[in-house]
Design a protein that fits this description.
about 450 residues; Rossmann fold; nine-stranded mixed sheet; about 25% helix
Amino acid sequence: MPPKNTRAARPAFRCAECGHEVAKWVGRCPKCHEWNTMDEAAPAKPALAKMAPATPSTSARPIGEVDLDSARAVPTGIAELDRVLGGGIVPGAVMLLAGEPGVGKSTLLLEVAHRWASARTGGPSLYITGEESAGQVRLRAERTDSLDPELFLGSENDLSAVLGHVEQIKPGLLIVDSVQTVQSPDVDGTPGGVTQVRAVTSGLVALAKERGLPVVLVGHVTKDGAVAGPRALEHLVDVVLNFEGDRHSSLRMLRGIKNRFGPADEVGCFEQRDDGIAEVTDPSGLFLNRQEAAVPGTAVTVMVEGKRPLLAEVQALVAPTQMQIPRRAVSGLDSARVSMTLAVLDKRGRIRTGEKEVFAATVGGMKVTEPAADLAVALAIASSSLDVPLPPNMVVIGEVGLAGEIRRVSAVGRRLAEAARLGFDRALVPPDSGRLPPGIKATVVPDLQTALKSLRSR
């Protein structure tokens, strides 16, 4: 009698970051090289060589005959959230909202559940909390004035119990806070592990598609700011949103990372208050520090987040030091691009900062990673080094190349129109910027040396 094949029964180990599987546990993933991400997973079942055909659940139709009414977005009543989602929540869509602890994810979703319930059009909303008790969520709802008889609240950690609530209440919107705290009784593994998170998410996705029920999942993030759990979690859902914010600032940014039903690069602005989350429809003024007198070391640029132009102020401080190795500190900017800008300033602009300390930051806690802010960073550093301020009514737009050239960026006309609306009447722009709006005088700067003349001539 041949020996039994026991190799298939051995457990496998799957990386929580990239999903790579190995037969034995290792401390570092061989594929993505992350440490301590290998978790035990159930062994994969062997694939069948041939599968028998089954009866389709629905008949295939020509694409032009497919009904669109069941897939139209339903507005949530929160304009900034609808902007990011592309008009609202699509029935049957599964959304994943990630963010750091304390940023306001639960408060935002409680407001979404309240708005949905009070609309009386899409059915009641069901809020499942796995991290807090029902009484704690009730206290938050009273503080933020989010009580409504059509808003149902349940405290569950079992997936089968969550499905039972859905069967009993038949909600029009389901919110699960959070997916890492819910476990499936049919799957082995600890709550929050790779196997459990994948099984719970797959079960909720199947529920959403079967009933046409929109589901919102709250996800934790790692210390690097990425969504915790297996990378396949982001592929299972339809929409991935990231809720960002500095704990020392009241401003919150809702950024779309993935969206199968709308734009994936939009951003919504909110403000964290004592009575809840409030929308910020015109956030440009939050990132500016307008002063009557011009101050050296400041430059204003215009970013584009999705389709929304936002004015941002870049501040720099260049100071002498007695230390052998001068310090370089960056906040809200890409440190690699700031280092590159310093090298270009030294080589092409003859602004020497090698023996001085350089500090660069943005105002209001805004994170600026777009290359269009390169020229503003360069002029802010040069302004502080020369102790000569830029004109207070000027905006600076352009990407700086290693040869010192100023490269073209997108949507210059839309950026300048927003700057003119806020009272700016002068601008430095790269060549080939297209048609510019009236009300603002734009000066084309082909290279960094030309841009620095606006400082040295003052």
